[in-house]
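Explain my protein.
***
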Amino acid sequence: MLSAFGMAFRTPDLRKKIFFTLSIMALFRFGSVVPTPGVSYTNVQECLKTVETGGLFGLINLFSGGALIQLSVFALGIMPYITSSIIVQLLTVVIPRFEALKQEGQSGTAKLTQYTRYLTIGLAILQSTGLIAVARTPGRLLAGCDLAIIPDTSWQRIVTMIFVMTAGTSVIMWLGELITDRGVGNGMSILIFTSIAASFPSQ
């Protein structure tokens, strides 16, 4: 095992890909702790000390590496992309046009990937809107904590938060594709692993 790692690092091209992948993973984790503008980072941290983050939100929070509960820039994680990928794959069975694209080879796959990206943005807007709608009322996202996570609930601030979280999802999608093209392994799988592994120390 160790000898295999040693051989990998002695190969210049493979070593470059490994370091590139690690740098993208580090950037992904950095975005997972940067709070979205309008979120009270202090209040979020105080709430996390006193409440249990279980249930559905806890499960989704696991796949975001803790970013969801903290309402960070990368709060939605890779979930919108995974959901849109599943939807597009199911639609290839239902919609003849999608089935034809799938059989066209590389060009058809590229178009389906483009549709997946568009759907990811749409889902990110819906999910960020729902998440902010829950978080704007104290005690709903983090049950048992009455501190205001979003002190300013004006529509301008809410729209800004939705835009930032949606942009964060777009960046995650781009980072995953960068790893696939220039790094080691499947980008989205690497980011999923990074998110889950980030929760190990706290567990």
